[in-house]
Every structure is written in C-alpha cells, then in structure tokens.
Amino acid sequence: AQKITQTQPGMFVQEKEAVTLDCTYDTSDPSYGLFWYKQPSSGEMIFLIYQGSYDQQNATEGRYSLNFQKARKSANLVISASQLGDSAMYFCAMREGLPGNTPLVFGKGTRLSVIA
Amino acid sequence: GAVVSQHPSRVICKSGTSVKIECRSLDFQATTMFWYRQFPKQSLMLMATSNEGSKATYEQGVEKDKFLINHASLTLSTLTVTSAHPEDSSFYICSARSGTGASGNTIYFGEGSWLTVV
C-alpha cells in the first residue's frame, strides 16, 4: 500500500484564487510528520509547511495552510491568493516515527498550473 | 537558515566513467543525509541513507557497488555513480535534517544534480 497518495496529477487555478491540493497518508505509527514541498522546473525542493501528528492546530505559513484531518488521514495543502510563480510540482511527504534519522516518503506529486 | 548545497548541478559524462556528486550542509552538522533519485515526471525515490562514520544503508534494488556513498564528515556526503550507463541518467538530490527533537522537523534539500550519461 502506498504511504502517501496524491490523487491529482494536475490542477489548474486562476490567479488570485485559492486552491487545495489533496494528500492522504497511511501509517500505523502514532508519531509522524507531514511535509509539503514545491519543486519548480529547476528541480530544487522548496520546503513549504510541516504538520506534526500531535499538533493540535493546523499549520500555516503565509499563503500556505495545511488542512490536517487526522481521523481521515488527510493533509491537504491550501494555497490562498494563487500567483503565477506558484506554478510547479507539489509533493506531499511523510516521516514516520519521531524526528530522527528517518527519510521522507513522497507522494507522486501534483502539477499546479496558475492561469492569468 | 540552514542550507544544503549540492554540486555539480549538471554533469554530462561518457558511458563507463564515474561521476561524484557532493552534498554539503553549510551551517549545521548532519550525521545523516539521504540520497534520492528522481526520473522525469516521477516522484523522489529514496536510494540510501548516508551515515557519518559508518556504511550507508541502501534501499532494496539499489546497487551499493554502483552507487558508492561516503559520509566522511558531519557536513559532507558524496555519491559516486560508478561505470555510469545511460539508464543512470536522472536527477539526484540529497537531503539532511537540521537539529534534533522538535526542532529537527525541518528537512532541507540540496539543489539537486542532473546527470546525463551519453
């Protein structure tokens, strides 16, 4: 079974509108962390936002917010007021267990295209 | 903030030669670094976990003799693709975790290295 599932291969959004990128995860570990990264065409991985499994509130970072629904095992990324520069691949990732030397497992990604 | 630097960003090599990619943590010590490979339009796949002062841990299906990993210091890990073949052409990217405990949630990535084997 996939650990991270991103069901939207591609998404389009009008500039200045909000968009939600879906992510569901699968783990039996009570401690885990969820990450979202942005990957532009240059290839670099840009960290956007983090949500810990024990965090009571949804994480927010500027225009990015994470809609964390623990019971549903979902961690959707919401980008508000989309900008042309937001066009990129977006990856949801998970770290299982406590912060330590464990790698991230990535979903297949969603390509977001912002339209003027 | 913490930065991970990767070099070279792009490299073209002839089939049969070896290529070394460096991953450096610039302002923090990383006892563990991770190496990923990403084929076009695909996700990042973990290749190996690089441990300072000990042998790397390879994921299933990754040839350790082909992808040599050396973590010689707390700020440097290298990936050497030996006897490269065209099918090794890919985007290779490293990552490292900064800090421990709750502050260790930030995982930084290098800029990545595009390898083309001709």
Q: Name the poorly predicted regions of chain B.
A: none
The number of helices of chain A is 0
Which two chains have the most extensive interface, and how many residues on each? A-B, 22 and 27 residues
Mean pLDDT score of chain B: 90
Largest sheet of chain A: 6 strands, mixed
C-alpha termini separation of chain B: 37 Å
Tally of strands of chain A:
12
How do the SSEs of chain B run, as a string of H and E?
EEEEEEEEEEE
Sheet bearing the most strands of chain B, described? 7 strands, mixed
Parts with pLDDT < 50 across at least 5 consecutive residues of chain A: none
Structural class of chain B: mainly beta
* Count of helical regions of chain B: 0
- Sum up the overall morphology of chain B in one term: globular
Please characterize this protein's 3D structure.
The complex is a heterodimer of chains A (116) and B (118). Chain A has 116 residues and is mainly β. In chain A, 0% of the residues lie in helices and 50% in strands. In chain A, the strands form three sheets. In chain A, strands 2, 5, 6, 10, 11 and 12 form a six-stranded mixed β-sheet that branches. A four-stranded antiparallel β-sheet of chain A has the order 3-9-8-7, with no helix packed on it. In chain A, strands 1-4 form a two-stranded antiparallel ribbon. The relative contact order of chain A is 0.33. By secondary structure, chain B is mostly beta strands. Chain B has no helices and eleven strands. In chain B, the strands form two sheets. In chain B, strands 2, 4, 5, 6, 9, 10 and 11 form a seven-stranded mixed β-sheet that branches. In chain B, strands 1-3-8-7 form a four-stranded antiparallel β-sheet, with no helix packed on it. Chain B is globular, with a radius of gyration of 14 Å. The A-B interface holds A 33, 35, 37, 42-45, 47, 50, 52, 91, 95, 99-101, 103-109 and B 31-32, 34, 38, 42-46, 49, 51, 91, 93, 95, 97, 100-102, 104-109, 111-112, 114.
